[in-house]
Amino acid sequence: MKESFETRCIHGDPDASLRDANNAISFPIYQTASFSHIKTGHNDSGFDYTRESNPTRSKLEEVVSSLESAVGTVAFSSGMAAISACFELFRPGDRILCSEDLYGGAIRLHNLISAKNGVTADYVDTSDLKTVEKSITPDTKAIYVETPSNPMMNITDLRGCAKLAHDNGLLLIVDNTFLSPYLQNPLLLGADIVIHSGSKFLSGHNDTISGFVSAGDANLIDKIRLISKTTGGVLAPFDSWLVMRGIKTLAVRMKQQQESAMKIADWLFDCPQVTNVYYPGLKDHPGYEINASQAKGSGSMISFRVDNEKTALRVLQKVRLVTFAESLGGVESLITYPALQTHPDVPQKMREHLGITETLLRLSVGLENADDIISDLKQALEE
Ligand SMILES: *Cc1c(COP(=O)(O)O)cnc(C)c1O
Q1: What distances in angstroms separate CA 123 from CA 92, 170, 354, one per listed residue?
Q2: 231 and 276 assigned to the same domain
Q3: Which of 83, 120, 123, 281 is deepest in the core (most CB within 10 A)?
Q4: Burial (CB count within 10 angstroms: exposed 0-12, middle 13-18, buried 19+), residue 44
Q5: Which residue has the least CA distance to atom 6 on ligand 1?
Q6: Which residue, of 215, 247, 279, is where some domain finishes?
C-alpha cells in the first residue's frame, strides 16, 4: 500500500531507487559537476555530468513524483524554466489554448518567446468548458490551465478539460502551483503534465527559486528530460536540497496556512472597505463546488478588491507584519499589487477584462498567527 501524503513528504517513495551510500538521514548535497568513470562504457553510479543528472536533484525528483503520483519529474532552475521546457514540445504553427487568467510570466513567455517561435496562445475563460470546446482548432495541440488562477482565483473543471483534451488528441497541462500536491493532484484527474513553481509552497520559505514538470507517461517525461538536458535550465544540487527540506513540512504548512486563510477570507468578507473576496473556500465563489470536487481544499491564496485605489495604496503602505512583496506560498505572509507587480506585461485591455485593476490586492497567507494577520490588515485598511 502507498504511504500517506504526510509520510511521502518526508521519505518520498520508500521503495524508490535512490539511497545514500552512507545512509545519511538528510540526503547529501552532491556538489559536483562531474562523476568519474572506471573504464570506457562503464559508469557505476549512472551519473555523468550534473546538467544531465545529479543524485541530490534525482532524489528530489523522486519525492515530487511520489507527491504528484507521476511516473517521472524533471526539476528546473525556476518555474519559468519548467514552463518554457513544456513549450519546447510544440512546433511552429501549433496553438495552445490557455486560461486567460494566467501567471503574468507565462503570458510574457507566450507573447515574447513562443509567438516568435510560431506557437500561438489562445486565451479563453477555461472555467467555461463550452468555451474551451468551441475554441479548439485543428492546430490546437494542448490546453494549458491554472486552477485556482492567478490572481482572480477562477476554478477550471480539470476532469472536464481532460476529457475535452483527450477526445481531441490534445495534451492537458496544469500549473498546480497555487494548491500544491497536498491539495490537488491533476494527473489523477486526467492531466498529462503538471507544472510547479517550487519557489512557492513546495520550498515554502521564500528562500529559493525552482520549478518542476511531472508527467504520468514515461515517453512524455523522457522528452522533457531531453529538453532539460539540452537547454540546460536545471536545478543546482544545493537548491535541490533546500526544496527537499522544505517539502518535509509541506503537509503541516499547507494545513495551517489554509486554516488561517479561511478565517481571514471570512473576516475580509465582512470588512467595510472590502468589496469582493476571491477565495474558492467561500460558498459564494462561483467555482466552490468544482474546486471541492477535485481538490482537498482551497489553499492559502486570497485576492480581494477594496473600495478605491487610495485604500489599496494605503494598505500596501501601512501593513507592518504582512510584507508588501511579490511571490507567495512561504511561511511569511506577503501582499501583492497584481496590476503593477505580477501582471504589468499583460495588456491594459486584457487586465481590465480580467479585473486586474488598481483596486485588486493579492494576499498569500503564511504561518503567522491568523489573528495577528487580521489585526495588521485591519489597521492598514482603516484610514
Ligand atoms: C511563481 C509562479 C510561476 C513562475 O515560477 P518561478 O519559480 O518564479 O519562475 C509560474 N506559475 C505560477 C502560478 C506561479 O505562481
Answers
A1: 18, 16, 11
A2: no
A3: 83
A4: exposed
A5: 79
A6: 247
Q: Is the CB of 123 under 6 A from ligand 1?
A: no
pLDDT tens-digit map of 151-192: 999 999 999 999 999 999 999 999 999 999 999 999 999 999
Please say which residue of 247, 279, 296 terminates a domain: 247
51 is catalytic: yes
Domain containing residue 370: 250-381
Report whether pLDDT(46) > 90: no
Residues 126 and 169 in one domain: yes
Give the whole-number percent of the chain exceeding pLDDT 70.
99
Count: domains in the chain:
2
pLDDT at position 42 is 67
Residue from 84, 109, 200 whose mutation best tests the ligand 1 pocket (most atoms within 8 A of CB): 200
Dist CA 260 CA 72 (whole Å): 33
To the query of whether residue 175 is one of the catalytic residues in this protein, the response is yes
pLDDT at 14 over 90: no
Q: Whole-angstrom Cα distance, residue 14 to residue 7?
A: 9
* pLDDT for res 21: 86
Would you say the CB of residue 208 lies under 6 angstroms from ligand 1?
Answer: no
Work out the burial of residue 187: count CB atoms within 10 Å of its CB; fewer than 13 is exposed, 13-18 middle, 19 or more buried.
buried
pLDDT value at 1 more than 70: no
User: Which pLDDT score is estimated for 69?
Assistant: 96
pLDDT tens figures, 54-84: 999 999 999 999 999 999 999 999 999 999 9
Do residues 253 and 98 make contact, with C-beta atoms less than 8 angstroms apart? no
- Our answer on whether the CB atom of 254 is closer than 6 Å to any ligand 1 atom is no
Query: Do 276 and 240 share a structural domain?
Result: no
Q: 256 and 234, same structural domain?
A: no
Do 264 and 138 fall within a single domain?
A: no
Q: For ligand 1, pick from 153, 194, 197, 234 the residue to mutate: most ligand atoms within 8 Å of CB.
A: 197
Q: Is the pLDDT of residue 344 over 90?
A: no
Q: What CATH number should be reported for the domain holding residue 121?
A: 3.40.640.10
